[in-house]
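// run 5 | inverse folding | seed 20
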């Protein structure tokens, strides 16, 4: 998890949480608190989306590497068999 969430995202979340807590104590439970809560939730949602995107990209890269490895093996085998069949057909 630490690889996907960078320091900047954690810093933004901490600052936004600090502002939210400060607004809670200065404004109390008023209508303006909903605005602060909305800003905090949007910040958290963006960080969660960035984390999930990073995890998804990692899984896709793993799958693509697996596919590439599987595709490269038959090509190497085909080249070896084609080379042998050409060598066998040449002596005639």
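// decoded
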């Amino acid at each position: 998890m630490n690889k996907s969430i960078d320091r900047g995202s954690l810093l933004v979340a901490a600052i936004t949480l600090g502002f939210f807590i400060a607004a809670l104590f200065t404004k109390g439970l008023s209508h303006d608190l909903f605005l602060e809560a909305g800003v905090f939730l949007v910040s958290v949602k963006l960080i969660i989306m960035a984390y999930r995107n990073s995890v998804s990209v990692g899984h896709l890269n793993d799958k693509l590497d697996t596919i590439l490895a599987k595709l490269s093996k038959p090509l190497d085998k085909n080249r070896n068999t084609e080379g042998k069949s050409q060598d066998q057909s040449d002596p005639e």
